[in-house]
Amino acid sequence: MKKKSVKWWTYHVLVGGFAILMLYPFIWLLMSSFKESSTIFVTAKSLIPDPWIWTNFVEGWKGIGGNSFGVFIKNTVILVALTLVGQVVSSTLVAYGFARLQFRGKAFWFAIMMVTLMLPGEVVMIPQYIIFAKLEWLNSLKPLVIPAYFGTPFFIFLIVQFIRTIPRELDEAAIIDGCNTFNIFYKIILPLIKPALATAAIFSFYWTWDALLGPVLYLNSPAKYTVSMALNMFLSNETVSNWGAMFAMSVVTLVPVFVIFFLFQRYIVEGMSTSGLKG
Amino acid sequence: MKKWKGILASAMLVSSLAACSGGNETSSGSSGSEKADKDEKITLRMAWWGSQPRHDYTLEIIEMYEEKNPNVNIEAEYASWDDYWKKMAPQAAANELPDIIQMDLSYFSQYAENKQLADLTPYVDKQINTKDINENVIDGGKLGDKLYGINAGVNVLGFNYDPETLKKAGVDSLSEDWTWDDYRDLAKKAADAGIFVDTGMKSDVFFNYYLRTLGKSLYSKDGTSLGYEDDKLFEDFFSMTSGLVKDKAVPTPDYLAQLKGIEDDPVVTQKAIGIWQWSNQFVGIQQVAKRPMEIHGMPGPDSDKGLYLKPSMFWSVSNNSKHKEEAAKFVDFLINDIEVNKLTLGDRGVPGSSTVKDELKPLLAPEQQQVFDYVEWAEKNSSAFDGPDPIGAGEVIELMDSLSEQMSYGNLKVKDAAKQFRQQAESILSQNK
Amino acid sequence: MSSPVVRENVQGEVYVPSAKARKRALKQDLTGYAFISPFVIGFFAFTLIPIIMSLYLSFTNYNLFAPPKWIGLENYKKMFTADPRYWQSLKVTLIYVFAGVPLRLGFALLIAMMLNTASRAVGFYRSLFYLPSLIGGSVAVAIMWRNIFGDEGIVNIALSFLGIPGVRWFGDPTAAIWMLIFLSVWQFGSSMLIFLAGLKSIPKSYYEAASVDGANAWQKFIKITLPMLSPVILFNTVMQTIAAFMTFVPAFIISKGTGGPMDGTLLYSLYLYLQGFEFFNMGYANAMAWIMLIIVGILTAIIFASSKLWVHYEADGGK
Q1: Is residue B204 part of a domain?
Q2: Counting one residue from B and one from C, how many pairs have CB atoms under 8 Å apart?
Q3: Domain assignment present for C145
Q4: Is there a contact between B8 and C66 if contact means CB atoms under 8 Å apart?
Q5: Number of compact structural domains in chain A
Q6: What is the ipTM of this complex?
Q7: What is the number of domains present in chain B?
Q8: How far is residue C174's CA from residue C162's CA, in Å, rounded to a whole number?
Q9: Which residues of B touch A64 (CB under 8 A)?
Q10: pLDDT in tens, A123-171
Q11: Which residues are CB-neighbours of B298 under 8 A, at least 6 positions away?
């Protein structure tokens, strides 16, 4: 008993201490949001604000040009929700095709998918922009959301790798039971790859939430802007930047991401243990 | 090779056709009809970069204009500096630029020479009234004989310093007609007192100033080569700047790289006497420092040959605009309307119109007053602007910054840097031939 | 390019095509394409044309605003023979990839293993460790990093405790790239999460069986954890390698967009961006992108080829 307690302590001191070290920059960000804008950098070395002020949050929430920060959060939530559903659903379908089904040209398409990952976005950006302009999709969510419904290579590959850890005997047993391909996918595979799906959902949420380039290119009306664009608008290259408001709203925008992470990470933990495969 | 080209060209053709088929039937929003009727509803897109106060007052200006012109609807598209230019490039590539664009000098040639901006000459003295504006100021927006932008205001180079910190170096005041030798003396005194004299000079801007005092310039008139022949000038200027870093009178580049904003600038924290910058930046540093500061002219000899009125930014009309005339009317409103300028208060540079300037004076805060005074002084003590930087200047500037950094660390001899700079800069600029 | 998926095609193929077999093959094809159809359609709709255009533009002089001019191989020639900054950016990027990816993955795996216990606090720790990755590439990060690596920042203080003299992270080009590597290691959350999901997918019964056989922790790690986790390790290695080559935002924000000091943080993507969008040499930027594609493609192919030796797929009957 005594021995175990030493082990317990070592674990928590080690892991907990390390977590705090990793978190220092975040704590700094949080504390800075309670400091007066002009003193943030001058007092960067001391963590504790003196005095504590709330005005950064009030100022920041007022937003920019008549749009409160709540508008930007609402825009981002809509964008994220539409994107997340599209990316996860379509990527799961495609991944199942690649991981489990036999068909001609599979290797070819898989290779194509990997190649699309290797070309930097900066060079396909302009031609893509021209296409979306021709489609008259500019200044709308369409160029950001619609492509999400056609599979995202990162998630496809991720889910492929997870499906491939599932023994094939399960499928075979299901076929004997009379399941068709879709039923195998839906009833056998889907429940078993919950951790991968939860992971994909977390990434999709966060990456869309944080994305800057796409919204910058395709959204022109400030009333449609997302939080990452709004945060940049607190900064100025010519005059005084409103650092306080920027930090305060950075903290605010982290809250939904953190909550989503906290909710979804449970599914990663549960995964196998609740689905009861092989014990 | 030829064959490949053919295949690619046909792929391009197919691709552009495929892309077109999506939506050619109707056009929406801004791209409406051709000629503007009096009562016809017109939508203009207007884009600018800036900070929160600028967004707020510009939106107010738009409202004022819409009230006076009920048939005009103006869609505002504003963003931060970085995001703004990320938006502009693809919009230009897709012929989707907003009708009215706030344009910066550093991108001016790139957009103007590639026919993205409309020539405003036909609108001058019809829709756009320029009679109150100094000709030098208007000419700043010219490339060749075409006018691609109306100057929104002017900035002038200067030394912004804190008189208190100056005293720490044992100097009471700077003389009106100081020279580079006086500057070096001051630097030495600062270093002896354990403070910096300044935070360094942005290499392209101040080297160009130095060249101008000697009757030369950084770029040749046609923009196809460098504007000075003798590398000794390069050596003289950068021996001075890198020497000051070596003597600890000016901080090293890595010290400067660690600064986060103007809030921890050495001038504000009283570790440096002054900062070399454009007049519009004075207000910001003064607000952060919360102490009286001064603007001082540039070191001579011949500082009046070196100084010039720099267009702070332009109002341009895009070439793909369907309503150029209406856009021009709005530009006129922006630069000439008194009420508009009372809201702007010189945030976009000191206005070019003398009438506007006189109206604004009583409304200015003390630090804004200092800027206006300095620009007024400079109007009489400066020479003509060389015109916008040529295409490729961005690359040349980065080259110079990088060489200047290496010289500051003593990693590169000034003589070698001068040769390298000439060779590489000439190769970049020769593409404009 | 070889991929792991190719292998299983061979399984159970019918080599004498009877009419029935052909019909079955067609049905298989149809089902397969039905599942991957979103990707295939999306590829033709949004990706193929831009890729072809990008390849075409790499042989042109294109400044974004005026029509591209065909110049053949000029861009590629300039890249390899007349542009020292190109080689510098390649060098910096290779350091970043080959030092950063193993460090980040090793770190992520270590933390994931530590958090893969049944302790109640684990959910909390997991969230804490993921927080740095949530802050992302905002300006706030750049400012924190300037603080941490400053002359009197926490890193130099820590180093001085170890008796190492302060490093001028912002002045020494060989040190500067390590700031970016540290940043990437610090934001290890996404790799950690994927490892964790992989660890959670290993059936507990395997470990129980091993315990019965008297295996110790190390043996379990080598015999069960590593092989069972290998598909996920492969995924992380491939994706992190590709992502590392594409890294742009951290270099951009920390160097204030210059790649300094003295091009010490001029990552490939940053240089590509500068060429395309600051210097308006979009043709050249496209040529750079295609060389990058070839480099990353070869590396990925090597990783995939090697995976036959070390990746264990339960689906293939535990080969």
Answers
A1: yes
A2: 90
A3: yes
A4: no
A5: 1
A6: 0.89
A7: 2
A8: 21
A9: 52, 55
A10: 899 999 999 999 999 999 999 999 999 999 999 999 999 898 888 888 8
A11: B157, B158, B159, B209, B306, B307
